[in-house]
Specification:
Layout lengths: L8 E5 L6 H9 L5 E2 L3 E2 L14 E2 L2 H9 L3 E7 L2 E6 H9 L4 E4 L2 H10 L4 E6 L3 H10 L5 H15 L7 E4 L3 H16 L6 H13 L1
Parallel strand pairs: 1-7, 1-8, 2-7, 3-4, 8-9
Antiparallel strand pairs: 3-6, 5-6
Bound molecules: guanosine-5'-monophosphate.
Length: 207
């Protein structure tokens, strides 16, 4: 039997442009947690590396992975499919590592269904105006795509109630500290198995 506890699965979601990616990079810095590398059918952006930022695959390859039951979750986001390869996540959790999934809300809800013990954190922008500024500033999307992302942001925010925690990313450092606080609190949650363990000692004492 392994002598370590199973790792915890964290889902980080929120509209694109809220800084989830940057927050996740901070959380995984110095090997504190592992981030899952998603699979996507979208084209790589300049500077993105296959196997590091995403596994970039064709629609056919993605469909095959779904059919073979290899995806923990998947969803259509902005006309492309994105999903989490299951095996790498499960292996890491079993090794006791905490794993982060940076995925959209549809995916987050699927994870909650199949792994109810997952901790879901929603990252909010301080306002839609700030979100728009950030999307324009990162210069990766056309104005048309930015409008689509803003409309999508409202739809995602409407599902906030399905999440366990929220963090507003106004000042990055504060947002990172908020998420670290959630992770620290979760690490101190009394696990379900503690009750049977206490019961065992109580029974022993009574004998
Ligand atoms: P981007 O194209 O900007 O990299 O990502 C677009 C959206 O897809 C983001 O909201 C991101 O969280 C989401 N996304 C990335 N990977 C996954 C994944 O594996 N599953 C799901 N459901 N969404 C993902």
């Amino acid at each position: 039997m392994s002598n370590h506890q199973r790792g915890k699965l964290y889902v980080i979601s929120g509209p694109s442009g809220t800084g989830k990616g940057t927050i996740c990079k901070e959380l995984t810095a110095r090997g504190a947690m592992d981030i899952s590398i998603s699979m996507t059918t979208r084209n790589p952006r300049p500077g993105e590396v296959d196997g590091k930022d995403y596994f970039f695959v064709t629609h056919e390859e993605f469909e095959k992975a779904i059919a073979e039951g290899k995806m923990l979750e998947y969803a259509n986001v902005f006309d492309n499919i994105y999903g989490t390869p299951k095996e790498a996540v499960i292996q890491r959790l079993e090794r006791g590592r905490n794993v982060i999934l940076e995925i959209d809300v549809q995916g987050g809800l699927q994870v909650k269904q199949s792994m109810p013990e997952a901790v879901l954190i929603f990252i909010l922008p301080p306002s839609l105006a700030v979100l728009r500024e950030r999307l324009v500033g990162r210069q990766t999307d056309t104005p048309e795509v930015i409008e689509k992302r803003l409309a999508e942001a409202i739809n995602e925010i409407k599902l906030l109630g399905e999440y366990d925690y929220y963090v507003v990313n106004d000042v990055l450092e504060d947002a990172v500290n908020d998420v670290k606080g959630i992770v620290a609190a979760e690490a101190r949650r009394v696990p379900d198995k503690v009750k049977p363990i206490i019961g065992k000692y109580e029974r022993e004492k009574g004998e």
